[in-house]
Structures are given as structure tokens and as C-alpha cells.
Design a protein that fits this description.
This protein is α/β, with parallel strands linked by helices. The protein contains twelve helices and ten strands. The chain has a six-stranded mixed sheet, sandwiched between helices. A four-stranded mixed sheet has the order 4-6-8-9.
Length: 278
């Protein structure tokens, strides 16, 4: 039951069902997701797949680090390694699947680490007011895996991808669409009330454009100027000037550039941003 599936008409909804753990992926989740995708791939009655997390707190907070830590403490290195092997196979299979059938990720909450790997290969990625996107692996001494080095650069460009990867910074709500992580932005209530039902009745001849059109017609309008410094025009230009500077060849070089920016900041907001980035 860690993965739930519901088919209505030609749409299959796959739900990661570990809400108490913010829908973090364990081995059972990974195996079940792979099995559900394989079944859907060969089922002609399924034309669209929607992936979401149970509850309204998280889409998926990443791999279950506690479970991996427990395996390592128990000396089960092979099992810990096997988890990542199977998780990366899931990412590859999802990327291939998304080229075959319309695949939607509903970011109904936290999207971090492995949660990005389960969703960023989807052609349609829907942010909501509850979305909190981050690649926080750096905080525990890792680097962004699950193919993030590829899809972050594809979606947000080199400088912002490096910024997210090195700082673990969080992107919230409408910001995810502004920077390019999400393809659409919809309030969760609107999705639940209207959008998913409209997608479910599209019919067996629908393609990704049809699904995107349904979502686009229901997109929420918000004040896109009320965003964090990092997502503002000024902040993104500053990020480009440091994290996109090819002359900075190391993390130490980047840290020195951040210190210089902080020392010469013209506002408290800018100064706080650079302080947080270091």
C-alpha cells in the first residue's frame, strides 16, 4: 500500500502513500512505482498518468535517508547501494515512459531530492501554493543525484542550477513556474475540484498538448512580484553573476565571490540573501 493507483476513464493516478514520512521513497516504493509504470506502459486503456503524494504536505521529500542510514549502521552496504541502483533505474524508466504517454506530476507539497527525480522527467509539472522545491543533498555531504545535473540545467539554466545544487535553496509556489521548474501553477483546491476530473475524461486519443491545454485554462493568477529575492529579476541577475561565472573554478572561488557581494550589498535583503547562500 505504499503506492496507490486509481484509474478513471483513461487516466491513471499513482499516489506515493507514505504521508507520515512526507512520502519519502523506500525500496518498496521504488519497486512498486516501477511495476505500476511497466503495467501502464503496456495497458492501452491508460493514456495519461498523474503522479502525486498522499495528503497535502508533500509530493515526495526524497529518498528515505533514515532507512538508508539504518542499513549502513547494520553493515548492509550492498542493500543500501542496491536501493540507489533501483531508484536510478526508476528515474530512467520514468523518463522513457514520459516520452510515450502524457505524464503529469502534481507538486502538492514538498518536492526534494529523489522527489524531483520522480517528477522532473514528467513533461507536465504542476506547482501549487504548497510547493516547496529544493535539492538539499549538500546539507548532508552529498551532491544532487537522480539526474538533477541534467534536468536542472534544462529547466532553469546553468547559473540557477548551480545555485540550487550548492546551496539547497528552496523555491516556493509560483516561484517554481517563474524559474522554469514547473510548467504550470494551479491552486490545489482548483486541481482537486476541476482539473483532474477534466483530464480524466479527455478520452483515449489525447496527447500531452491536450492535457496541458486543460491545465492552462485553469491556471491560477497570483501576484508574481511577491517572490523571494532569488527569483526576482535583480536576484537572478546576481545569481548569474556568481554561480554562472565560468572564471570561478571551485567552491572556494564561489564563496569568495559571495563574501564580496555580501560586503558590498546595497540593501538588507540582498545582504541576507548572500549570507544565506554561503
Amino acid at each position: 500500500d505504499v503506492i496507490l493507483t486509481t484509474q478513471r476513464a483513461n487516466a491513471l493516478c499513482i499516489t506515493i502513500n507514505r504521508p507520515a514520512s512526507l512520502n519519502a521513497l523506500n525500496a518498496a516504493c521504488v519497486d512498486a512505482l516501477r511495476a505500476r509504470l511497466a503495467d501502464a506502459l503496456h495497458n492501452p486503456s491508460i493514456t495519461t498518468v498523474i503522479i502525486r503524494g498522499a495528503g497535502d504536505r508533500a509530493f515526495c521529500a526524497g529518498g528515505d535517508v533514515r532507512a538508508i542510514h539504518a542499513l549502513l549502521i547494520a553493515g548492509e552496504l550492498a542493500r543500501a547501494t542496491e536501493f540507489f541502483t533501483r531508484e536510478f533505474m526508476l528515474n530512467a524508466e520514468l523518463a522513457a515512459f514520459a516520452e510515450t504517454k502524457p505524464t503529469v506530476a502534481l507538486w502538492n507539497g514538498v518536492v526534494m531530492g529523489g522527489g524531483a527525480g520522480v517528477s522532473c522527467y514528467c513533461k507536465i509539472r504542476v506547482a501549487t501554493e504548497r510547493t516547496v522545491f529544493a535539492m538539499p543533498e549538500c546539507a548532508i555531504g552529498l551532491w544532487p543525484d537522480v539526474g538533477a545535473g541534467w534536468f536542472l540545467h534544462r529547466d532553469v539554466g546553468h547559473a540557477f542550477a548551480v545555485y540550487l545544487s550548492l546551496t539547497g535553496a528552496r523555491v516556493r509556489g509560483i516561484e517554481a513556474k517563474i524559474v522554469g521548474l514547473a510548467t504550470h501553477y494551479i491552486e490545489l483546491e482548483t486541481w482537486e475540484r476541476d482539473v483532474q476530473g477534466e483530464i480524466e475524461v479527455l478520452g483515449d486519443a489525447c496527447d500531452a498538448r491536450d492535457v496541458a491545454d486543460v491545465i492552462r485554462r485553469r491556471e491560477s493568477t497570483v501576484d508574481a512580484t511577491a517572490v523571494s529575492y532569488a527569483v526576482s529579476d535583480e536576484g537572478r541577475a546576481a545569481i548569474e553573476g556568481v554561480f554562472g561565472d565560468d572564471r570561478l573554478k571551485s567552491v572556494d572561488d564561489i564563496l569568495c565571490a559571495i563574501d564580496a557581494r555580501e560586503a558590498n550589498a546595497e540593501s538588507d535583503v540582498e545582504r541576507a540573501f548572500w549570507n544565506a547562500s554561503s
